[in-house]
Design goal:
Elements lengths: L2 H17 L11 E8 L5 E8 L3 H13 L1 H12 L6 E6 L2 H15 L4 H4 L2
Parallel strand pairs: 2-3
Antiparallel strand pairs: 1-2
Helix pairs in contact: 1-3
Length: 119
Amino acid sequence: MSDRKRRVNEAIKQVLSDTIPSLKDPRIGFVTVTGVEATKDFAYAKVFVSVLGSDKEQKRTLEGLAAAHGVLQAHVARELRLRRTPVLTFEYDPTVERGVRLTQIIDELAPDHPEDDAS
């Protein structure tokens, strides 16, 4: 990945992370933008999000984000002033959830260490 593409992806991620919490759509729950992948020509960008809550809440949040994509895209355009603002699509990123689940499994399987009890 080129440096420019990496910088643009990170800039889009930052703008969306700052903007999404201010959306008034009641469908949108607690969202964390975990990554952005723009195409080579910056025509499209997949925005990966982690959503706190049940499967139903995750689905509702993705629907709310899809409905708000025009507003979010306009905000990205205003903030970043790119020649071409990518069309945003939102996808659920299960990696955070998997990481939490793996940590729980490791904690359950790991034997207690005596030094942990001393604190």
